[in-house]
Design brief:
The chain has two domains: about 140 residues, HAD superfamily/HAD-like (Rossmann fold, 3-Layer(aba) Sandwich); about 140 residues, 3-Layer(aba) Sandwich (Rossmann fold), CATH 3.40.50.1000. It has about 300 residues and is of the alpha/beta class. A ten-stranded mixed beta sheet has the order 3-2-1-4-5-10-9-6-7-8. It contains twelve helices and ten strands.
Length: about 300
């Protein structure tokens, strides 16, 4: 990543996270590769409906307004298990929506995750949990996006002009050591541990690097008129909040908003924030959040063992 421009952000995304491909995926699952290829070719000029991460990609593309074509602020890479032939429908849809995606890999059924690192991606979004796990094992921020159409959340927030990204704390931005204590020894032991170690920074989790890259991109814009806004949305409450704040200060990382919910359901708060996407390691929290906003499951840490 030595050649990347300051503040440059790269996101790799699979086609099923970007577009609603569930009809064609159903053909593949039911009738096999040949039927799938025929299905895609016969519809290659039919524009695909937006998928659950479509809004995120569109807002990433909007960050490049005023930037030169050879030095975009944000770049989205398409990784697809289609062949280049069956993938033509996907590229036609990308062109139709003006998403500005110019780099892509089509693997004809082989895994796509080996290509994340060569592109220098800071984040990988996929509908394939195994691909996500392999990316996390290589130290790349990654999340599983359950495939569905954009706007499927029944109480989805109205579109906001800013790109708004929300994160859970433990096992996402931070390591899972504290969460492990809570799971294995209970909340009282967790509270004692966080009070005793309030001035000891936590270790970094899988999304620490992505958050730092996102903040560098934020700094390319005026502080009072940034098109990006971030939030920490955590089940922690006082006094366990102190260690979070001091850790972020030690890292030199700033989040625009911090919500310490003390175990409250996160979904309504994410809707109030207007998150374009929320990342959490807990499947329970994801299942709740995706009723309100797009959500990515991070299969990392003690909650996923």
């Amino acid at each position: 990543m030595d050649t990347e421009a300051p503040g440059h952000l790269t996101v790799a995304i699979t086609s099923r996270a970007l577009f609603d491909l569930e009809d064609s995926h159903g053909v593949f699952e039911r009738d096999g590769v040949r039927a799938y290829a025929q299905f895609q070719r016969s519809r290659e000029n039919d524009v695909l409906r937006p998928g659950i991460a479509f809004g995120l990609v569109r807002k990433l593309a909007a960050l490049n307004a005023g930037a030169s074509d050879d030095a975009p602020r944000a770049e989205v890479i398409l990784l697809s298990r289609n062949s280049s032939d069956t993938g033509l429908r996907i590229f036609n849809s990308i062109e139709h929506y003006g998403l500005g995606i110019v780099r892509a890999v089509f693997t004809a059924g082989e895994p796509t995750d080996p290509y994340i690192e060569p592109f220098g991606a800071h984040l990988f979004l996929s509908a394939n949990p195994e691909s996500v796990r392999r990316a996390l094992e290589r130290g790349i921020a990654a999340a599983t996006i359950l495939p569905s159409r954009e706007g499927d959340a029944p109480t989805a927030s109205p579109p906001h002009p800013q790109l708004r990204i929300a994160f859970d704390g433990d096992a996402v931005i931070f390591g899972d050591e504290s969460q492990r204590i809570a799971n294995e020894q209970g909340l009282d032991a967790f509270s004692r541990n966080e009070a005793e170690l309030a001035h000891t920074p936590m270790s970094g989790g899988p999304f620490k690097g992505f958050l730092a890259a996102l903040q560098r991109l934020q700094q390319a814009f005026p502080a009072d008129d940034s098109p990006i806004r971030t939030a920490l949305v955590t089940a922690r409450s006082a006094p366990a909040h102190k260690r979070v704040i001091l850790t972020l200060r030690e890292w030199g990382v700033r989040l625009d908003e911090a919500l310490f919910l003390g175990g409250r359901d996160k979904g309504p708060f994410l809707q109030a924030f207007g998150a374009d996407i929320f990342f959490d390691d807990s499947r329970h929290n994801i299942d709740s959040a995706r009723l309100h906003v797009a959500a990515g499951h991070v299969p990392h840490g003690v909650a996923n063992e």
